[in-house]
Write a structure and sequence with these properties.
mainly alpha; two-stranded antiparallel sheet; 4 helices
């Protein structure tokens, strides 16, 4: 994984310009994290394009190998470039919580559907 520098002056070869702008706007370390809404405001990107920005962040992680984390903790809420093991652990903890919430939602939807089917059949 790459550690991005906010001092990068040149866009990495092949990286779309908007991806580079988003990367350059992400601060280093959880202590400097910023909400994605603020990042979008800083880049003059409409809040209506939130999904596009989320897709760009996914591309930066999955296609360009940057270590980007997010946190929902009160003291470090937002997005940041992972600098050390503590940042990595926080990002992993945040993702694990989201993954569990999604799995619980999936189970509840399935249970609700099955219960609805049983009621109709009764």
């Amino acid at each position: 994984m790459q550690i991005a520098s906010t001092e990068e002056k040149e866009r990495p070869q092949g990286m779309p310009y908007l991806h580079w702008r988003v990367l350059e706007a992400i601060p280093q370390g959880k202590e400097n994290s910023i909400p994605i809404a603020y990042l979008m405001e800083k880049l003059a990107i409409s809040q209506l394009d939130r999904r596009k920005v989320n897709n760009i962040i996914n591309d930066l992680i999955n296609d360009y190998d940057y270590a980007i984390g997010t946190s929902s903790q009160k003291d470090s809420r937002g997005i940041f470039l992972i600098e050390d093991e503590r940042d990595l652990n926080l990002a992993a903890h945040t993702l694990n919580g989201r993954a569990m919430a999604i799995l619980n939602r999936q189970k509840k939807i399935s249970d609700n559907f099955e219960n609805k089917k049983k009621k109709k059949g009764a």
